[in-house]
């Protein structure tokens, strides 16, 4: 393969799988405080039960108000509460939903050069559902850590592995898959919007010769994908967070959680935490996709060098 550059050879499924998981972890390290602020804002206003004291009396106002309040009351480390579970989630979750997207898309097109919107949507739904089925316990633990107040003696979870054991003991193994339904719905929507929008924007920019397949193109495509995804996915994301963090028996199901939100807090409740969601998804998409594209090229260049 002498004379070939990394960009001349399509990346293998293994390269995409490893690259997606690594890039997602790097993106999470940068954006995790925004994700934690989003969770705190989403659960605020929910009825507090004795078994679910994670929300506490603290009132959060806005993205940076939430972050500053958490730092003041709980310390800077509280912004990264649940990071271990978050990284476990990203390594397993993103590897499947992003790393396998192109392969599944090719499966639906049956090798055809023409890739329609239907094939893209089907691929996004498929890999999103597969990722949730694999990584749901890590998502439950991440949300529980982010929701609990780190200061004081009321902490339910004191370590990642202990949290898995506690949830399994108190709620059964089904508790680790709590919220799988809304999470599959949420991630099918997120995956379709995020990957398909990124795909379409990037294709449009390249075909119209407005940009080359380089960093500015990846940045623009990722930012657009993050904005579209936040608008579409916010309502189901709030329901997913509320239901995952709820005490046992607080809601009979995700639909009951959504109805309770609507009747007690009104339609605006479904867009609680919208700004941190957008800041997080927008910045996460930019860091993730830019890193992913560069990692793919670096890994392929290394493969070409070896062979």
Could you walk me through the main structural features you see in this protein, from its secondary elements to its overall organization?
The chain has 307 residues and is mainly α. The chain is globular and about 55 Å long. It is built from 10 helices and no strands. 70% of the residues lie in helices and 0% in strands. It has a domain at 84-178. Keywords: Membrane, Mitochondrion, Mitochondrion inner membrane, Repeat, Transmembrane, Transmembrane helix, Transport. InterPro entries: MCP, MCP_dom_sf, MCP_transmembrane, Mito_Metabolite_Transporter. One of its GO terms (biological process) is transmembrane transport.
Task: Chart the SSEs and their pairings.
Elements: H1 13-43, H2 63-74, H3 83-97, H4 101-109, H5 117-147, H6 160-171, H7 180-207, H8 215-245, H9 254-265, H10 274-306
Helix pairs in contact: 1-2, 1-3, 1-10, 3-5, 4-5, 5-7, 7-8, 8-9, 8-10
Short description:
The protein has 307 residues and is mainly alpha-helical.
- Strand share of the residues? under 5%
- Global mean pLDDT: 83
3D shape = globular
End-to-end Cα distance, whole Å, is 7 Å
Structural class: mainly alpha
Number of strands: 0
Q: What are the secondary-structure elements, in order, as H or E?
A: HHHHHHHHHH
Instruction: Note poorly predicted spans.
Output: 1-6, 47-56
Task: Enumerate how many helices there are, as a single number.
Answer: 10
- What is the helix content? 55-70%
**How many whole angstroms does the radius of gyration measure?**
20 Å
Main sheet characteristics:
none
Subunit structure: Homotetramer. Adopts an asymmetrical dimer of dimers functional form.
Family: Belongs to the mitochondrial carrier (TC 2.A.29) family.
Keywords: Membrane, Mitochondrion, Mitochondrion inner membrane, Repeat, Transmembrane, Transmembrane helix, Transport
GO cellular component, one term: mitochondrial inner membrane
């Amino acid at each position: 393969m002498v004379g070939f550059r990394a960009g001349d050879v399509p990346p293998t499924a293994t390269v995409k799988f490893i690259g997606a998981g690594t890039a997602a972890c790097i993106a999470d390290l940068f954006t995790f405080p925004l994700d934690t602020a989003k969770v705190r804002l989403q659960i605020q206003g929910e009825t507090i039960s004795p078994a679910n004291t994670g929300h506490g009396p603290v009132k959060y106002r806005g993205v940076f108000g939430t972050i500053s309040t958490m730092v003041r009351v709980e310390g800077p480390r509280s912004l990264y509460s649940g990071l271990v579970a978050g990284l476990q989630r990203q390594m397993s979750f993103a590897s499947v939903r992003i790393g396998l997207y192109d392969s599944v898309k090719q499966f639906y097109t049956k090798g055809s050069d023409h890739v329609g919107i239907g094939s893209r949507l089907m691929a996004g739904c498929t890999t999103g559902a597969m990722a949730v089925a694999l990584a749901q316990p890590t998502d439950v633990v991440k949300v529980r850590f982010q929701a609990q107040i780190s200061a004081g003696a009321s902490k339910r979870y004191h370590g990642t592995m202990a949290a898995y054991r506690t949830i399994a003991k108190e709620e059964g193994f089904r508790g680790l898959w709590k919220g799988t339904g809304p999470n599959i719905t949420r991630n099918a929507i997120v995956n379709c919007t995020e990957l398909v929008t990124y795909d379409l924007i990037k294709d449009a920019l390249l075909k119209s010769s407005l940009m080359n397949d380089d960093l500015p193109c990846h940045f623009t495509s990722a930012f657009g994908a993050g904005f579209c995804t936040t608008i579409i996915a916010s309502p189901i994301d709030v329901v997913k967070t509320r239901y995952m963090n709820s005490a046992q028996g607080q809601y009979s199901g995700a639909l009951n959680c959504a109805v309770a939100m609507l009747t007690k807090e009104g339609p605006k409740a479904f867009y609680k935490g919208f700004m941190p969601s957008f800041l997080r998804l927008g910045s996460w998409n930019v860091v993730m996709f830019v890193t992913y594209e560069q990692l793919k090229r670096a890994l392929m260049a290394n493969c070409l060098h070896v062979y």
